[in-house]
Every structure is written in structure tokens, then in C-alpha cells.
Amino acid sequence: MRNTKAFKEAVAQTLTELAHRGLTLAPATVEDVIEKNISTVSERLRIQTRSAWRYFDAAALADRLAQSQSFYEESSSEKGVGQAPMPPIDNPELALVLAGVPDSLAQTGGDLYAVIINVAVNAWMAGHIHGEDGCTGCDGSRGPAGHDWEARMRTITELQPDITKWFDRDVWTRAVNDAGYAVTRR
Q: Mean pLDDT of residues grouped by 10 in the chain (186 residues)?
């Protein structure tokens, strides 16, 4: 189904309609929704997939997706689900995440997927920990010991006193090159 002209046009139309509504979704998400909807129509009406396309309406689908996104955002804010803020650019924990990339490249033999997963998980955890103090959804999540973010940052800075060097692109690139790797465009 995904290789058909009708499918590709439906995705393009839906993405355009979403853009008109000020909503951006990943094309893969839109593709999954369209495929599910067309398959469901085909099964329920007991018709061929190619006949189910006559029931497709990009504007109506975009409206439903926008409504769903709006409902999700409203329900999340009502339940006090917070979003962790990005740490400041000179954050010690962010420096550790950046510093870990060259080491991770060397350890994985250049497996970029593994490096990205490592960075994403560490950045997510760092951002979440940073936001726990202000996140109403995280109240009490650290147990009776609580959470002292400032103490954590002091400890990291003591272990890595020269954290600012990792915010210099040239220093970081040299470290990646020293690990035996380089990022080049083909």
C-alpha cells in the first residue's frame, strides 16, 4: 500500500493540511495513521484497498489529528504532567554527555546508532533530573531522600573541572578525531 501513488499523495495532502493548522507531525506518524485508516475502511466495508481511497479525506484526517493533539496537550496539563526544561548551555551534565560521544564512538567501533542512543538516554535523564524540582508530575518521585540538583552539579564539576572545553566545537571535533573517527558528508 505504501508504494502506491494514492498513498504518497494522501500523505502529502495530509501533511499540507496539518501545516495549514499549524501542526507538525513526523511523516512516518502520518503514514501509519493513513495506512491504518485505509486498512480499517477496507476491512469493515469488505472492499479492496484501492477502492477504500475514495473515502479518504485529508482535511478531515488533519482535523482529527489536530483535535487529538489538542486533547492530549490539555489532558496532560490538567494532570500536572510537567515538561523538563532544557538545561543551561554551560550545564556540567550536558558537558558530560558531549564528552561521552568520542568515548562512545571508540567503544562501539563507530556504531553511530549506539552512540545516538547513548547520548539520547543520557540527555533525557539529565534533562528530566534537572526538571524534577519544578515538575509537578515528579513530586515525591525521588523517595524520602529528595533531590538536590545543585549538589549533583557541584559534584560533576568537581570531577570534571574543565567542563567548558566541551562547548567548544573544535575541542569536541579533535576528541572525535583522536578517537579515530570523523564526520564527513558524502
A: 91 93 88 93 93 94 90 66 60 78 86 85 65 53 54 69 75 85 75
